[in-house]
Fold this sequence. Notes:
Elements: E1 3-6, E2 26-29, E3 31-33, E4 36-39, E5 42-45, H1 55-61, H2 70-76, H3 78-90, E6 95-97, H4 105-109, H5 117-132, E7 137-142, H6 152-169, E8 173-176, H7 182-190
Parallel strand pairs: 6-7, 7-8
Antiparallel strand pairs: 1-2, 3-4, 4-5
Helix pairs in contact: 2-3, 2-5, 3-5, 5-6, 6-7
Amino acid sequence: TASELNVRSSASTSAERVGSLTYGARVEILEKSGNWGRTKDGWISLTYIYQDGATGSNMIKAGMPRGVCAEQWHLNNPHAITRLQRAYAAAGSQIVYAPTFTASAPYLAQHGLDDRLEEINSRLVQLSREAVGEHVLVAGDMTTVGHPDVSYEELLEVYTRQAAALRDAGVDLYVIETMMGLEETMAALEA
């Protein structure tokens, strides 16, 4: 039977903004499956969603030197990231971020790896999936390009390339975080 959910601020409840849902909206739940509810726009969580955190600082504790290409370090030391992600899943995380935070062309180019963007993103998503299995969502993580003077078209190209690589690798969702400005945020969202 259908029921309704009042979507409130995630600061005070477990409801999250999803798709076209907005603060204070009432949404018809068409079907429930565990802690998930299907709406006309897609699935939403009916409880809190737990995700991983502190990946960078934990990787430094695991031996990753500062200033290296983190993505390459993960590929050369997969046990460190997979051990951390398994621990997050065992602690109840429902989402882990694939370690693709700076796996975009501008960052990888700084290490001579931009021609391997698709391969690197794919392998990092695969490592995360292997670590947590199919019952934990794997998020493709994207961030700022780190340069304020990049055109919208260039930003869109950068984010479209990484988003496509992550999609093709099988991520369940995207996370766009730590952005420097509205233009790059909008380009990442469009991608």
